[in-house]
Structure prediction request, 566 residues.
Amino acid sequence: MSTESQKCPALEIHDLIVSYQKKPVLYGVDLAVPEGSMVGVVGPNGAGKSTLIKTVMGLVSHAHGWVKVFGGELRDSIKRVGYVPQRESVDWDFPVSVMDVVLMGCYGRSGLIKRPGKMEKEKAMQALVKVGLEAYSKRQISNLSGGQQQRVFLARALAQESDLYLMDEPFAGVDAATEVAIVDLLGQIRDQGKTLIVVHHDLATAREYFDMILLLNMRVVGFGKTNEVFNSELLQKTYGGRLTVLSEIAGEVAKQER
Amino acid sequence: MSFYKIFISPWENHLSAYWPIFAMAFFVTAACGLVGNYLVLRRISLVGDAISHSVLPGIVIAFIVADSRSSLPMFIGALVAGVLTTLLIEMIHSRSKIKQDAAIGITFTTMFAIGVILVSLYGADTDLDLDCVLFGKLDFIASKEKVFLGLPQIVITMGSVLLIIALLIVLFYKELLVSSFDPNFAATVGIKPRFVHYCLMCFLSIVVVSAFSAVGAILVIAMLILPAATAYLLTDKLWLMMLLSIVHSLISAFFGVHITVAFQVSTAPATVVAGMILFLIAWIFSPNHGLLRYFTNSFDLSTFQKEN
Prediction:
């Protein structure tokens, strides 16, 4: 990574306020994610994790503040940004094959009207190999398990060949073995100098998966290197001490801190 | 009635007289069916219902303003009414706590009511009557002046609409696919899903208004949904689904005309009934989703893998 790219963060957010029907969901969010980092977004239900991702992707409009991607407007570098939505956001009975869905990742680069050709199909196939679904390319998407559907979405994002990835709960409904494989894959992408921002629900694994953590509960409670931010005090602050599981994890963290 | 009398004798005479009716029935059903594929997949079939009713005031106003029955003002009137309906539905839906189904119900009935009032006020001048508005008059096509291939102008127009729709779907297949399957993702790769949605609503208005005089406001909904719904049961591939919906249109138009000839009834409802019979056949015998499948083969590999 050059020093020049370190100057300009992959994603920069300043004083962001988002509200749904006058009810604030996010406020005062300030963030600068350096290139080449893998950030886990952690917080309780309703903390605005998905909203943050959607706002960056321009799917939700914000009331105040700004979002910069690679130092400019999102639309100027939209081809450098990949998006993995939540699996429940689409109808899996839709009459398309796994290959068709992954090919959608190439749509941004080919212009209007133009159909995906041989090159795009090869890229899509490579993406499927990476997520271990190459044998399923012709299968209709409803004939997949939840974890496989999640990996189809991941393959589609890989086919986008982006420099910044925003992923909304890519581990939801994925079994433990697959989760490890996906984390491994994400690590490889990060090692290529790309940036990943991943919404993650499981506090127990968040610490080992990500090099940076964003603790979110409507506002940024903490953001930084995992070992600096992932401590009992900030976690209690994020979750308001409501979860019993949390106290266990916090206790564990506290033990290690000693 | 003997087999001969029902199935053979109708076709011995009057074949040329029924050719334009058959062509029109096919063009209407196929054009509606093609657009209908996207309505069914996007789960907005009821928006098709809404637009089929609410183009009426657009047509009547276009008649009054342009003082003619030519197609261009009619198309413009229908387009404006169609887009206005879509906008209104969305506004009610997003600016209040009324849900989409209620918003549709409010919008299209009001638009249709305005249309009915306009027809009863100006119907005499515009040559429209409520029977025609509701049920269409496919059978009168045969008596019109033939301009090309033994087909009257109105049938040629419908055929052109079908061709244009088919061409647009082939050209913008990719854009329509991604924005129907995953509109949020479409937006992130630079394909604007709202723009695609409004384009689709424009196609829908044009198809509906060109089908209007033939099948009326009520039966056009069947033409929009039946071919796509039947095809959806038979395949898991979008392009094949669209192809099958055209096949469905062809067969239902053929049997629709056949029923008309055999029993001397109106063609539009006969075509709908024929289409419904095809849907039932597909529902029962579909290789993957058929009713028979549930009884004969309650366990198969694909359901196993789904559970897995």
Observations:
- Strands of chain B lie at 146-148, 151-152.
- Residues 18 and 142 of chain B are 7 Å apart (CA to CA).
- Residues 3-294 of chain B form a domain with the ABC transporter involved in vitamin B12 uptake, BtuC fold (CATH 1.10.3470.10).
